[in-house]
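step: validate -> pass
step: tokenize input -> pass
step: predict -> running
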Amino acid sequence: MIETWLNEIYQLDLDDKTDAAIDVLFDHVDDLLSAGEFDQCDEVLKDLDPNRLSNALIVAVLSITKAAGGHLPSRFHFAERSRASLSQRIGPLRIEALLANL
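step: predict -> pass
step: emit ->
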């Protein structure tokens, strides 16, 4: 089930429908977090490939998972993978500005 909406997110983002991709992401991740399904949400973070996400979608993932970060061990690893991906796209100085407080 998770794989289905992750593929939807990737496709929407690829089709330059990033706002729609963010809506899908927020709907599903919010449902998981609200239900206390931290393990499932952590699996999402493990499965997400930052190389397939736009900058805006990476920021959205980190934003919606920030408050629950203590329950999501994979969030740190997702953030590190995201930094590596972003460094090739925008450079280190812009990464810090983009990811500040996330």
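step: describe -> The chain is about 75% helix and 0% strand.
step: cleanup -> pass
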